[in-house]
Write a structure and sequence with these properties.
The relative contact order is 0.11. It is built from 16 helices and 18 strands. The chain has two domains: 51-333, 3-Layer(aba) Sandwich (UDP-N-acetylmuramoyl-L-alanine:D-glutamate ligase), CATH 3.40.1190.10; 346-480, Protein-Tyrosine Phosphatase, Chain A (Alpha-Beta Complex), CATH 3.90.190. The strands form three sheets. Strands 2-3-1-4-5-6-10-11-12 form a nine-stranded mixed sheet, with helices on both faces. It has a six-stranded mixed sheet with strand order 13-14-18-15-16-17, sandwiched between helices. With 497 residues, it is α/β, with parallel strands linked by helices. The chain is globular, with a radius of gyration of 22 Å. It starts with 16 loop residues before the first helix and ends in a 17-residue tail after the last helix.
Amino acid sequence: MPEPSPSAPSRRIGLPLGVARPIAQLARRVSRASGREGGALPGRVLLGLAPGALASLARSGRRRGRRIVLVSATNGKTTTTALLAEMLAAQGFEVVHNVTGANLRSGIATTLLQAGRRGDVAVLETDEATLPRVAPDLQPDVIVLANLFRDQLDRFGELEVLADRWRDTLAALDPSSTTVVYNTDDPLISELVYDYVRAATLEGHAPSVVPFGLDDEDVAQAGLPHAADSRFCRRCGHALDYDHSWVGHLGAWSCPSCGARPEPAQVYADEIALDGLAATTLRVSLDGGGHRELRLRLPIPGLYNVYNAVAAIAAAEVLGVDETAMTDAIATSAPAFGRFERIPVPGGGTITLLLVKNPTGLNEVVRTLVSSGVDVTATLFALNDGIADGRDTSWVWDADIEPLLERAGAMVVTGERAAEFGLRAVYGGLDPAGVLVEEDLEQAMYRVLERAREFTEHGHAYALVTYTAMLRMRAVIAAQGWARTYWANEPRKRGRR
C-alpha cells in the first residue's frame, strides 16, 4: 500500500514512543506468525501511533553510537545496500539493514524498531520518493545518491521534480555531520549536489562530498541511448553533450553553454572486464589518483552492477572499512533477491530472476544477456501494473528489447498486462506464434522451465519480472523449497574490527 503524502489528512493518535513501541512489536509478531515477512506493518502501526517515531529512534540509536546510512537510487539501491552491509559486516560491525527491501517510511521504521539497542551501523535502502520524507528526521551520517532514472511516472511525476525534492532534502541536512556520496556521472545528481555545496559554502560550512563514477571508455557506448532520461543542463537548460555513456544517461557529459561538467570522481572503476553472466573484474581507485586501489572480482554480472559496487565501496571508505574487508565482501557477494538471482531447480537446470521496472533497467538486462551469449530460448516476461510496479506500463515501448527477441525466438508472457507486452514483442519483430501467453504466473514459471528442459542444453531459464511479479514468483520458489525466503539473508557480524 502507498503511504499517505505529507498533505494527506492525518488520524494519528500521537502516543509516546514507549507506549507505541510494544504495540507495533506485537503487530510484527502477528504478521510473522501469519507467514508474512512483516516488513512494513509494524512501522505503519508505530508511525500511526507515534508520528515522531523515526526521529526518536534515530536519536536513541545515535546516543548509543549507531551511525545511519541512507542509500537511494532509481535502479540498484537494493544491491548497493546489500554490498555495503556485507562490507561493514566483514569489518566486524553489527549491521542493521532493511534486508526485505521494505524501503518506504513504514519499512524503515520497522527496521529501526526491530533493531532496538542493537547495531553499530544502520544501512537503510530508501525509496527515491520517500527519501525527502525520512532524511530530515534521520539526519544520516552518510547519504548515497546513486542515480535518477524515469520510473513510475504516475507516482513520482517528472524526473526533474524528483531531482528538485532531492536538492531540498540535502538542504535540510546538517552539512557538518553528513557526508554525501554521489554519482558524478549522473548530471541530475551532480547538479543538485553542486547546488547543495554552493549554498552550504555561502553559509560558512565546508560540506563533505564524495563523487564516484566509472572511467573506462572500452565498456562505454558512443553518445546516448535513445531512451536516455537526462539530456539538458539543470543550470542553463541547454542540451548536454555526451562523449560516451555507460548506463542510460550516466556518462561523460558536459554543457557547451555554461561549462557544467562532472566533478572528478574520488572513487572510480576502470579496467573493467565483463565475463558474461559469471562475473566482472575491475580496478577501483579509492583516492582519485590511483595511489590506493583494489583489484576485484565481482560475481554479479552487468555494467550497472559495477556502479552499485563502486557506490558501496565509496560509502564503505567513508565509514572506515579497510581494503581487505571490501575485497573479501565483494568476492563473496551474491545477487540480491530477484536481481540476477540464479536459483537451482530440482532435476537440473536453473531459473534466473531479473527485476525490470523501467527502460534503462530493462535495456541493461537485455544488454547483459545478449552480450554474454547465453541461450535465451527459455525466457519469460511478467508485466504487472500494481502500485509498487507503477500503473503506467508504457515504458516497455521505450526499451530496446529487439536483440533479446531475436535471440529468444519465442517468449512466455504473463502478468496483469501480459497482452500489452505481447503486443510490444510482436511490434519488436517476434512472430505472434512465439508469444506464449500464460495468465497464471506460477504456471508460466513451470512452462518456461519446461522450455528450458526441452530446448536448451543446460536447462537454464530466464524470468524478466516487474516488482510485484518478482515477489510472487519468489514466494512460489520459496514454497517449493528451492530457495530461502528473501528476508532470511540478513548480514551478520563476522568478528573483525
